[in-house]
Amino acid sequence: MTSRSLFQRSCVLLGFIALSVYLFYIGKGHMLLIDTNAVTINGKELRSPETIEVSIDGKPAESMGRAERILVLVGGPKHSITIEVLSGEDKTVEKQFTIPTFMDSAVVSVPAILGDAPPESWITTFTAPPVEEAPAEQMQHEQDTPEAAAQASPDATGAGQPKP
Amino acid sequence: MSSKLRNFFIDNAVVILFVVLIAIAIPVSGLPGTFLMQEILTRLGRNTFLVIALLLPIMAGMGLNFGMVLGAMAGQLGLIFITDWNIVGIPGLLLAMIISLPISVFLGWLCGSIMNLAKGREMVTGFILAFFMNGLYMMVVLYAMGSIIPIMNPELLLSRGYGIRNVVGLDGVRQSLDTLIPLKIAGLNIPAFSFLIIAAVSYFIIWFRKTKIGQDMRAAGQDRAVSGAAGIPVEQTRILAIIISTVLAGIGQIIFLQNLGTINTTSSHEQIGMFSIAALLIGGASVTKASIPNVIVGVILFHLLFLVSPMAGKNLIGSGMLGEYFRQFVSYGVIALALVLYEWKRVTQENDSRATLRGGGAPAAKEAKGGAA
Amino acid sequence: MDSAEPILSLKGIGKSFYGNRVLADVSFDVGAGEIIGLVGENGAGKSTLMKILFGMPVISETGGFEGSIYFNGKEARFKTPFDALDAGIGMVHQEFSLIPGFTTTENILLNRESLNSSVLVDVFGPRISTLDRATMESRAKSAIAKLGVTLDPNMLIKEMPVGHKQFTEIARELCRENVKLIVLDEPTAVLTESEAEVLLSTLRLLASEGIAIIFISHRLREVVELCDRVVVLRDGHKIEDFPAKGSSTKQIASLMVGRSMEAQAKIDAASAARSTQSDSDARETILSVENLWVDMPGETVRNVNLSVKKGEIFGIGGLAGQGKLGIPNGIMGLSPAGGSVVLNGTPVELNAPRAALERNMAFVSEDRRGVGLLLDEGIDWNIAFTAMQVQNQFLKPILGGLFLWRSDAAMSNLAEEYIKLLEIKCTGPGQRAGNLSGGNQQKVCLAKAFALRPDVLFVSEPTRGIDIGAKHLVLDTLKKYNSEYGTTIVMVSSELEELRSVCDRIAIVYEGRIEGILPHTAPIEDFGILMAGADRDETTVALVGGN
Question: Core-most of B101, B115, C248, C351, by most CB within 10 Å?
């Protein structure tokens, strides 16, 4: 193996590794919990308007009330959120935000965004409460024994399907 | 003229048989044409890549690569990982393919090396190797994953704490490839991007035949002794054919599963060898000769038969279960039929060449000696 | 044609395989542009000599060779055929070394194709480049032009007539840059008369351009016509080396098979002393073979017609690959065959070994390990087996024939009998057949056939691999069975001496046909001529008695 080909092959290998890291970064999926609960930032309590319509990345908008949470599945680090306020002052706010790569579930606080809080406070990590409150994700548990399932027909999805 | 017609029927016996079968079954099943068309388009996008993976080993003289199942396993492992890490969309698929690459290369090298030890019996060797590797795969997937191999997402695991559960949902990457370029013609959804990928890999195969490695593979596939005497590294070339086939099978399995949307951890890979080989053979390929038109025709005919047989069975006999039996029967049966036809053709040719031996004066005999040489 | 220094010089070449001497002190020179004809019986050492020249690994694996080879002025010790090829020696083998599904061009340039440059080469290696078919075709065309024949560069090999295949092979050797010597092994064996003529003129053309040629052939007429000099090998020695002009095929044939005067006289005396049976014509025909063809790879039989008299010992001889081994294999159903075989007036079913055995014919195959023996079973099993299967010997009916019970004692006794008779060296009747030496294995095979008490016994290569003492024993036993029990024996052998010492009449097979049948008393040169397939005229002369 000539040194030139060794060099080129190393480049290709490194290229693959770099590509993998990149794909990991831009493909990482996140569970966004759009949250309209009141938050306190820097001593100030911020609340969400009565009714809003929220759209992530240009997808169809969902309407939300004051103390709700909806689940949105996204992929990648950078996203946009469009909040259209329907009650009180009509305004539409569109902001870009970035989810840290290793944050699987992120709470996006609508009041923080609307209240012009500093961007670092918009996104917080979601921690599942210890016992009672049912987590937003409803995964059904499978039977334990691996059975030989017949070749799957296109309808069986297995995992529960929360609102996409 | 009649001998030309006879030869045409012999050469294309399998295709003709299936076209006739389907032509009868479609009206009997009562399924609407648009439904069938849509299904065929979807299945073409889903299955063709896997069948293309079978082409190179046939060119290299190693027969039908039952060992492609190893590639399917590698692809599945890749998908399990990206599901665990929650990588979605096209990046997720690409990453799964990249992860499956080294696993496929290793398994392909293993498979090829073992097949080299069993020259002339590569097909059954691949078949048995697939069974054996299935055991290893199960060990990895049902025992090692979650215990030795860290799995971050506990939802993927069985309730006992280790081992991947039976059905893994691919919600993150579901249909990502198919919907990348949405194309709708005459009310039919066409998976344009999948077709583009299939075109790309077809082009790769065609280009590969024109390279020196491709030429060496063709030579080794026809006569190992002559190729070896000319200095072609026959063993390595054969292993390379299997490695490429396994890698393509891994990628093909990823494409296949993203369309289905779920992995059946224990069984998704098992039938894929059988079905792909059956499809290729129905398309008119043989153990020694296969081309891309065989692939496309085969996928269409094979899946048409799959689609219409349950309803046709129900309308004919009153039992929908017939479809499932028929499915299994067809896929095993067509492989047996193709192998028998191949053997029959070979024996007929031998007999024909021997016909010149009988009695005969000197010139005819010398002709025969040359023909037999 | 005569250059100062010969292009190839063999000095004192010798070779023995595990103590078995195959070549001894063979020396000759080949000048540039000279055509040497190399002739000799099989077993004379021609193929071994060529293997040494061509650097075949089997030579170095078995202890190398003696003597030295000088090629192109330098001493040469090729370790692999590729070394020989690189040095400038090309070899055209007897079996075509061609890929049937490739075109002429692809075959001529096999593994030496012209490649397009490619950026991928650094990463994936040189084989990733695509083929430059245009350059390939022009290279092939120039090689074909050197031959002076027309070949379609784009025709597939499998669709080509045989002569063209041969030319493609030669073109492939020519396409190498520095080819100086080409060895052709039986090149005209598969060609028609006219194709052979074209080949010979092509070879003359090549020679005139300075390429030396070694022409190995059994077709003596062509050797005399084409070659400048003839080298005759026999029993591993070079017998003669003389100019072809002025020699005759008969002369060459007799050199090929002849022995020293004394040895020959002794054999002729022994042969004559053997009481000749009563006139052959008076005895009835027991086996009549007509238009027999047999598809046995390497020993194809095309059209054999024979009549074997009852009670005679009929020999079948000929050079290797000419078809003699195919005859018994075909008649006994071991190879696909057709034609008509009639035994005692009733036709014999072909392609059915059991049918042949049930007609009381037996066969001792030349392939004793593959066909003749159950290697994992004892001697007693082996000897008794066929008799038990076909004739229900050593089986006692039980319960009125419901079961057949095997009698191990009877089998063992039989084995003891034959062990004594044939002096089989073993530890006892139970010894595993696979553990016996080759000669003793052969004796077990013979015993198995004798146990059947056949009417017609075919024996192929009865004394191959057996030492001198055992040879006599085996041949004497055959003679005894013939004289005591009247068994008709058909013996196939490559050793002419053996046939002449045992048989009444001997047929010689050439190119799948019976070339002639001679009485055992015929002079040895006559056999040589038949084996070499010389002209019919000369054969007639020999048969009539002219010497």
Answer: B115
Write the DSSP symbol of residue A119: G
CA of A48 vs chain B CAs: smallest distance (Å): 31
- By C-alpha distance, which of C97, C375, C38 is closest to C219? C38
Distance (Å) of CA B212 to CA C101, C171, C309: 16, 21, 62
Best B86, B142, B265 residue to mutate vs chain A (most A CBs within 10 Å): B86
Measuring CA to CA, which residue among C102, C156, C113 is closest to residue C135? C113
Q: What is the mean pLDDT of residues A36-40?
A: 81
Determine which helix (DSSP H) or strand (DSSP E) holds C301, and give its type and residue range: strand C301-309
β-bridge mates for residue C519, sequence order: C505
Highest mean pLDDT among B53-67, C74-88, C134-148: B53-67
Residue C118: helix, strand or coil by DSSP?
A: coil
Residue C378 DSSP symbol: B
Residue C61: CB partners within 8 Å, gap ≥ 6?
none
Inform me whether the C-beta atom of residue A5 falls under 8 Å from chain C C-beta atoms: yes
Residue C520: helix, strand or coil by DSSP?
coil
Class of domain C261-360+455-547: alpha beta
Q: Please, which contacts does C433-439 make with residues 24 or more away whose CB atoms are closer than 8 Å?
A: C433/C373, C433/C374, C433/C375, C433/C376, C433/C377, C433/C378, C433/C379, C433/C381, C433/C382, C434/C369, C434/C373, C434/C375, C434/C376, C436/C379, C438/C368, C438/C465, C438/C466, C439/C465, C439/C466, C439/C467, C439/C470
Give the global pTM: 0.74
The domain C1-88+214-257 belongs to what CATH superfamily? P-loop containing nucleotide triphosphate hydrolases (3.40.50.300)
Q: Do B212 and C302 touch (CB under 8 A)?
A: no
Answer CATH for B36-298 from 1.10.3470, 1.20.272, 1.20.120, 3.30.470 = 1.10.3470
The structure tokens 């990453």 sit at B95
Joined together, the tokens standing for residue A82 give 């469009």
Predicted pLDDT at B182:
81
Q: What are the residue ranges spanned by the domains of chain C?
A: 1-88+214-257, 261-360+455-547, 368-453
**Summary mean pLDDT of chain C:** 83
**Which secondary structure element, helix H or strand E, spans residue C16, and what is its range?**
strand C8-17
Which residues 122-141 of chain A have a CB within 8 Å of chain C? none
Every domain of chain B and the residues it spans: 36-298
pLDDT tens per residue across span C190-226: 777 778 888 899 899 889 988 999 999 877 888 888 9
> What is the amino acid identity at position C335?
S
Asked whether this chain's domains C1-88+214-257 and C261-360+455-547 adopt the same fold, the reply is: yes
The pair of three-digit structure tokens given for residue C294, joined into one six-digit string: 């047999």
Q: Residue C436: which of C459, C450, C418 has the closest Cα?
A: C418
Domains in chain A, start-ordered, CATH in brackets?
Answer: 29-125 (2.60.40)
Note whether C299 contacts B: Cβ–Cβ < 8 A.
no
Residues in C closer than 8 angstroms to B230, CB to CB, are 97, 110-111
For residue B284, the SS3 value is: coil
ipTM: 0.80
pLDDT of residue A109: 85
* H helix intervals, A74-126: 110-114
User: Which range is most confident: B4-8, B33-37, B98-102, C282-286?
Assistant: B98-102
C-alpha C167/C-alpha C199 separation (Å) is: 8
> Would you state the structure tokens that stand for residue B96, as one six-digit string?
């799964």
